[in-house]
Amino acid sequence: MLAAGEAGQEPAAPCCPEGGDRVKNAEEKSDMSIAALVGSDQLTQDGDDDELLLSVSAFIEKEVGSDLKSLKKLGKLIEKMTEDKIKLEEQVLTISSEIPKRIQSALKDAEESKQVLNQFLEQEAPLFSSITSHLLTAQPWMDDLGAMITQIEEIEQHLTYLKWVSQIEELSDFEEILAQLHWPFITHTQSQAVGINWPAGAPEIYGTLETLFCQLLKLQASDELLTEQKQLPEKYSLPECPSVILPIQIMLTPLQKRFKYHFRGSRQTNVISKPEWYLAQVLMWIGSHAHFLDEKIQPILDKAGCAVNARLEFSRGLVMLILEKLASDIPCLLYDDNLFCHLVDEVLLFERELHSVHGYPSTFASCMHILSEETCFQRWLTVERKFALQKMDSMLSSEAVWVSQYKDITDVDEMKVPDCAEVFMTLLLVITDRYKNLPTAPRKLQFLELQKDLVDDFRIRLTQVMKEETRAPLDFRYCAILNAVNYISTVLADWADNVFFLQLQQAALEVFAENNALSKLQLGQLASMESSVFDDMINLLERLKLDMLTRQVDHVFREVKDAAKLYKKERWLSLPSQCEQAVMSLSSSACPLLLTLRDRLLQLEQQLCFSLFRVFWQMLVEKLDMYIYQEIILANHFNEGGAAQLQFDMTRNLFPLFSHYCKRPENYFKHVKEACIILNLNIGSALLLKDVLQSASEHLSATAALNEVGIYKLAQQDVEILLNLRTNWPNTGK
């Protein structure tokens, strides 16, 4: 561009018009090229003419400047810009033709991607559900695997520890010291010899033994990793106990080797039908080493402040050998009743001696835990039931079972227990002894149910035999059955107060409460000890006893009534008075009645136990009292001699029949006794009493009058009836 005049003059005209036109045309073309060069896109985007003008001015200023000579460059610049324009146009045309294709391809790719994405979304929900389900299913496996990994890590730690222990043991001279003491003591004689004749150099040996024992004790006590490794499955439910202390374990090693050599291999001593061999062997070892352990090892433990009983620790280690042996043998003889029963018998004998003689605590693992395993325990119950029923069958098939084995010993035979009842209760007692040391209350309760079933079975058997004897209820066998029922009921009632069965009652209460098996009333009765575990059985037995007694009473009462027929027909109205007789004597018509009564009382007194006979005669007296009162006294009229004879027959003959069984038998004949009083009142007293009863306005005054003459049982109306039965009233209009 040309600059203006410095003095503010008008710009000078160009020297020739053509040159000016060329400059103008060049500028126009330059503007067009520059616009094309800068780019229409930029111009369009900016949308600002001022910025375009500034950009063009800046471009011309740069390329041409204020020097006119630079105008020579315009031709080349225009050509260059024209070429650039053509290239740009070609590029625009090329791009404008390709962009739709690319857009279409991009849209197609996007659509396909959308479809694939939708497919993935459709597959995502079931896949997520499947993965979630799989994770839930696999979680227990992961938990188990985690637990197993933890156990493996612990076992690896234990193995590492035991390897160190083994190396330490190799360096110890502990076993050599034991060898110098002739350990182990295989026989009791050897044990006594060691105790009496201590080896040469005993103080030095004992000092070394103490030192090594304490070191081994500290080695184990200082490590928390070593815990009891159960060698038996969880199904045996062994109690949690710490491992046997390390020095005792070492002392047990030679005995463990001997046990396995003799009783776990193919030796002739390993006989499955002879469990008593290995059981006796272990008991012998415990006894042989008890003195040494008490006298030599226990002081070391006490001095070290270790609260362990050496003898019990030693016994516990040996008992574990028994438990492993039983766990191995029992499955092999489980279904051989004879072998299994023999094994149980021997194990129970072993347990009894182990606890009673050697003081083995019930809190330690014992053979009863092995017998309590479900399969073994159910088999034990089955075998116990089978042999008990067989015993009952053979027992009741003999006639001798109804006789008491103490019949010739009066002091012992008070209960008159037949042999069958004695044997049966002994059987129940033996069963109790066999299961009372079971480790858990639920197992004991199952045995208790077995005992109750056996009692009910025996009751049914007795009932069946009794029904065969109902035609002769006074015979020996019937009475023997009644004595048996009474004895069983009495013993069960005594057992109900035993501490062992009270504990079972408490255990049963807890079980019933958990299972809602009883009503609140029944639970309350059990909790308050108003009822017992044997109540159901006792009630059934008492019902049977009462039924049998009632049959006997009814039978004797029928005989007495038959014998009293003549006595009922006695002419009470015409008998001579007492003053007309030199000596009062028993009515001859009463003899059959009294003889029958006497004979039956003597018979049943000999055949029934004391408690049963007491109930019998009291039931009989109650019926007899009412019979004489209603059928003889109220059915007749009495003159003075008749009333006196009745009183003599009753008070001097009937009542004394029962004086051997009670001090005042007349108190059991209240109706007869008081009727005799009324009938034998002297005339004056009878008249006065009659007047009082007739004129009494209040019941209390009548009662007082009756009590005054000794009447307490009979009612006022009964007394008035009796007064009217008297025929010796004077002719006074009364």
From TrEMBL:
Residues 71-123 form a coiled coil. It holds the Pfam family RINT1_TIP1. Keywords: Coiled coil. GO terms for biological process: endoplasmic reticulum to Golgi vesicle-mediated transport; regulation of ER to Golgi vesicle-mediated transport; retrograde vesicle-mediated transport, Golgi to endoplasmic reticulum. PROSITE patterns: RINT1_TIP20 (PS51386). Residues 1-13 have a biased composition (Low complexity). GO terms for cellular component: Dsl1/NZR complex. InterPro entries: EXOC6PINT-1/Sec15/Tip20_C_dom2, RINT1_Tip20. Residues 1-23 are annotated as: Disordered. Belongs to the RINT1 family. This is RAD50-interacting protein 1.
